[in-house]
Design a protein that fits this description.
Helices cover 28% and strands 22% of the residues. It is of the alpha/beta class and 255 residues long. It folds into two domains: 144 residues, 3-Layer(aba) Sandwich (Cobalt-precorrin-4 Transmethylase, domain 1); 95 residues, Methyltransferase, Cobalt-precorrin-4 Transmethylase, Domain 2, CATH 3.30.950. The strands form two sheets. The protein has a six-stranded mixed β-sheet, sandwiched between helices. β9 and β10 form a beta hairpin. α4 packs across α5. 37% of the residues are buried.
């Protein structure tokens, strides 16, 4: 019997925000697939997390935020078989396709053996997640696939800042800030800017030029969380997990 590939969202950072369904899926799976952006890892690696002889593999897991979050909620994670999947943060399409094809092929081998494979991903698997690159390839080949939703980072960030995202007829736009967003900032309603880290100086400049109201959470729900309550407070440099919630006008009474 063919196994099932399940993309599991572990939420934005706080282990307490993981769903009961996510915890159960991790506990019941045979293998946990973990995306690794570290360029040192060039090939997929399968190993037993609980085997002292394979302790070397843990260095990659210690750098994986999704693994750390899940481990705090599911102690059984430390006894699982782990599949490390290279997923470097690059934009070369041909190279990425080659990597994703190879990663999916390795997962397919485990599914063919009847193993239940869970892919850990931050936030929700359907929102800018590397999980879906593997999911869609396996689904196209006829393998059983599932998605376990997680709390999206922008919902967690709004809750952390104690504000609403949208009200009444407001529109909500989710934008990848690592690309050109100048025109997108003119859209009506609330703009959520994700993946802002490397572009944060440019984003801050645009927000100030356009007089937009913005708040930012860096590393939401994690130990090193930082909150900035205005565009003026946003620093020139920020980490990868930085998310902004941008409103149309200042002083509109909605806060």
């Amino acid at each position: 019997m063919t196994g099932t590939f399940t993309g599991v969202g572990v939420g934005p950072g706080d282990p307490e925000l993981m769903t009961i369904r996510a915890v159960r899926a991790i506990r019941e799976c045979s293998t946990v697939a973990v995306p690794i952006s570290d360029r040192e890892l060039e090939d997929t690696v399968l190993f037993s997390c609980g085997d002292p002889k394979e302790e070397w593999g843990r260095k990659y897991l210690e750098r994986c935020t999704a693994w750390q979050i899940a481990g705090n909620a599911v102690p059984e994670l430390d006894e699982k078989q782990v599949l490390l999947l290279p997923m470097p943060m690059i934009k070369e399409r041909d190279r990425l396709k080659e990597i994703h094809d190879r990663d999916a092929a390795e997962v397919a081998k485990l599914l063919d053996e009847g193993q239940q494979v869970v892919f850990l991903t931050l936030g929700d698997p359907t929102v800018y997640s590397t999980c879906m690159y593997i999911h869609k390839r396996l689904k196209a080949k006829g393998y059983p696939t599932e998605i376990v939703p997680g709390v999206p980072s922008f919902c967690a960030a709004a809750a952390r800042m104690d504000i609403s995202l949208v009200e009444n007829r407001d529109e909500l736009h989710v934008l990848p800030a690592s690309y050109d967003i100048e025109k997108s900032l003119e859209l009506p309603g609330t703009k959520v800017l994700m993946k802002s880290g490397k572009k944060i100086a440019d984003v801050r400049r645009l927000l100030l030029e356009k007089g937009l109201e913005a708040e930012m959470v860096e590393n939401c729900g994690m130990e090193n969380e930082r909150i900035y309550l205005s565009a003026e407070e946003i620093p020139e440099e920020a980490g990868y997990y930085s998310l902004l919630i941008v409103k149309e006008r200042k002083g509109d009474g909605r806060r």
